[in-house]
Amino acid sequence: MSISMEATTGVAASAALAPAVLPQIDDPQKIAPKDARALGTLFFQQLQVLEEGTHEYQYARNTLIEMNLSLVQFAAKRYRNRGDGQMEDIIQVGTIGLIKAIDRFELSREVEFTSFAIPYIVGEIKRFFRDSTWSVHVPRRLQELRVTLAKAKEELTSTLGRDPGVAELAAHLDISEDEVIDGLIASNGYTAGSIDLPLGGTEQGASDSGTSYADITGDCDPGMELVENLHALAPLLETLEDRDREIVRMRFGQEMTQAQIGEHLGISQMHVSRLLSRLLATLRQGMLTQS
């Protein structure tokens, strides 16, 4: 669609006074960059005088978004090595940055919209990688420190001819060694591999090598908790009276029934039940107090 530049200039001159009839553009993404700049000024002027929420306002805003989607494509090119699947997400978050730039742009700034919008677009993309691509969530401070450490390591490696140590990184960045260590540890959370991968890190499947990381990964031994409980229980049993300790031994050591215990002690099964309830409550409370 060709648009007379004289007509565009005339409409733009009166736009600051009252809403004007904007040219209808069937496919804003096909507008040439030269025409897009002139039209952009016209549409931004109209955004300032049109009532937000009206059909005309939405048309002006949406047209500006579509006319400038090429800026998102341009900014996203540097991340094309991330893969096609992630590129779609990059375009989406970059478009959010473009929309924010359009909503905040003012012609009175006397700056090209392109120069104003690119930092917003790139900023949204960087925030996406910083907040959404970590395998393990870490504080933003450590996410940013990881990037700083990576740049410092590259600089020092070039200067020293070898990988720098913690002390050298700390001195170069003027931070403590503990902060460097925290940043290096946090870097381990950026990516994570599947424990189903075979030893050696190939992606062919664990069955090809026979042994996966999951096969050699330790697990909690339920017997350890039992040992800890028995260790905590032993001194509590020593505090019981002889008959109470004998009841516990018969019930849980010899696995005698309450009726058998009652017969052995010459008391009723109901009495044994009450005694056991009291003893177990006492022992349980003692273990909770210890923990």
TrEMBL record:
The record's section on PROSITE patterns has:
SIGMA70_1 (PS00715)
Q: Where is the RNA polymerase sigma-70 domain?
A: 89-102
Listed GO MF terms: DNA binding; sigma factor activity
Protein's name in the database: RNA polymerase sigma factor SigF
Give UniProt keywords alphabetically: DNA-binding, Sigma factor, Transcription, Transcription regulation
Output one GO BP term. Answer: DNA-templated transcription initiation
Q: What CDD domains does the record point to?
A: Sigma70_r4 (cd06171)
Q: Which domain of life is it from?
A: Bacteria
